Amino acid sequence: IKDRGVTLGVISFIAAESGRHYADEDLQMAEQLAERAGAAIGNAKLYADAREAIRIRDEFMLIAGHELRTPLASLALHHEALTNLGDTTPLDKVRERGKKLQHQTARMARLVEELLDVSRIAAGRLTLEIEELDLGVFAREVADRMREDFERARCPLELHLEPTQGRWDKGRVDQILTNLLANAVKYGRGAPISLRVSGDATAAKITVVDHGIGIAAVDQPRIFHRFERAVSPRKFGGLGLGLWITAQLVDAHLGSIEVISQPGEGATFIVTLPLDGAARSPA
Question: Which of 7, 92, 103, 104 could form a disulfide with 71 if both were Cys (CB 3.0 to 4.6 A apart)?
Answer without folding.
Answer: 104
